[in-house]
Amino acid sequence: MNRPPTDIVTLRVAHCRAEHAAHGEQYHLAVMHYRTCLEAAERREDCQAVRFFALRLADCYEQMGLLHKAQEFRELGDCEGGSLLS
Predict the structure, then answer these.
(1) pTM to 2 decimals?
(2) Quick count: other Cβ atoms within 10 Å of Cβ 37?
(3) Measured in whole angstroms, how far is the alpha carbon of residue 68 from the centre of its chain?
(4) Phi, psi dihedrals of residue 34, rounded to the nearest 5°
(5) Which residues does 43 contact at the CB level (< 8 Å), separation at least 6?
(6) DSSP calls for 12-52
(7) Which of 28, 66, 68, 85 could pair with 61 as two cysteines, CB 3.0-4.6 Å apart?
(8) What does each of the 86 residues of the chain score in pLDDT, given as a tens digit?
């Protein structure tokens, strides 16, 4: 199994690819790259980044019509206070 990147340069490239795909309405690609970013943020225990990428995933899933999946990521991203990594 491939591990998501932890170095900031690789993570930034994945984020740029996700943004580009989302702007091009290629949500399946955006989801793939945002998930990579989210997993890296979780491993780094970066709650702010986890929140950011979870909300980006929620937006993509919403655009794809996968509302249940979008809601799951929105709940992860909307957590206030405490750890997002429970």
Answers:
(1) 0.82
(2) 26
(3) 16
(4) -65, -35
(5) 4, 6
(6) HHHHHHHHHHHHTT-HHHHHHHHHHHHHHHHHHT-HHHHHH
(7) 66
(8) 455 556 788 889 999 999 999 999 999 999 999 999 999 988 888 899 999 999 999 999 999 999 999 999 999 887 654 444 44
The two three-digit tokens of residue 51, written as one number: 């929140």
Reduce the DSSP state of residue 81 to 3 states and report it. coil
Give the integer Cα–Cα distance in Å for 18 and 54. 13
Rg of the chain, C-alpha, whole Å: 12
Cα separations in angstroms, 46 against 23, 40, 49, 84: 25, 9, 5, 9
Distance between CA atoms of 15 and 9, rounded to whole angstroms? 10
Nearest Cα neighbor of 14 from 4, 24, 27 is 4
